[in-house]
Amino acid sequence: MLDLDLLPGEYAVCRLPAGSALPASLTAGPDDKSVISVTWGVDELSVICPNDRVPADAIADTAWRCLRVADDLNLAMTGVLASLVVPLAEARVNIVTFSTYDTDYLLVPTVRLTEAINTLTAAGHRIAS
Question: Which residues neighbour 115 within 8 Å (Cβ) at sequence distance 6 or greater?
Fold first, then answer.
């Protein structure tokens, strides 16, 4: 099973209009430890970021907690997200996911965090906070 880290603080899932420039609040300095995901799509610019970095003009849902897969992953691995998503779907916990080259991230509603952690632990995953 997988080792997961619960990242500190709450996260937001945001939407900006298509063609928006990258907001200054999302730029990172050399000591920045924030996790931010930016996706340019045909119809929108989607951003996942800590609540204190939400762009001023964004539509934002701000009550999420972020779990990071701490295990070493590679692009050839299969079933990583499925091992997290399936138990949570069966428990009816809504999620937002995103992936990077190195790992996967999973956001769960703050109000469902305890339930999500219990569900993932029951599925055999280990969670550090």
Answer: 91, 93
